[in-house]
Design goal:
Strand content: 5-15%
GO cellular component, one term: cytosol
Number of helices: 3
Oligomer: single chain
Protein name: Amidohydrolase-related domain-containing protein
Structural class: alpha/beta
Helix content: 25-40%
Distance between the termini: 28 Å
Cofactor: Zn(2+)
Radius of gyration: 15 Å
Order of helices and strands: EHEHHE
Bound molecules: zinc ion
Largest sheet: 3 strands, parallel
GO molecular function: guanine deaminase activity; zinc ion binding
InterPro entries: Amidohydro-rel, Metal_Hydrolase, Metallo-dep_hydrolases
Length: 110
């Protein structure tokens, strides 16, 4: 069975003071950006969700762009009800999240 191939290793650990708290960067806000579910392991998704939640950050990602992508997400994340569920269970689908290119939502995702 194919395995998710993370685009990056586990990210850094955030420790205060954060760069965005300095007045010099008042107009710049960080956004947690997993490329899409297939580029992340569940461990990485957990870590990114924790960073977003613990720091009240916005999130952006991509979801359900093609039928092939949706099918592969179902194959690689069999314990989740849907593509949306993958992000939801990792705290990456919040009122501060933007999911782009959702061209193939299915079931409850539609
Ligand atoms: Zn996209």
């Amino acid at each position: 069975m194919a395995q998710p191939r993370p685009a990056t290793s586990l990210p850094f650990t955030l420790t205060p003071p954060y760069c965005w708290e300095k007045s010099l960067y008042a107009l710049v806000k960080p956004v947690v950006t997993p490329r899409f579910a297939l580029s992340c392991t569940t461990k990485l998704l957990d870590h990114l969700g924790e960073i977003a939640k613990n720091n009240d950050l916005h999130i952006q990602s991509h979801i359900s762009e093609t039928k092939a992508e949706v099918n592969l997400v179902h194959e690689l994340f069999p314990d989740y009800k849907s593509y949306t569920d993958v992000y939801l269970k990792h705290n990456l689908l919040t009122n501060k999240a933007l999911q782009r290119h959702a061209g193939r939502p299915q079931g409850p995702e539609a």
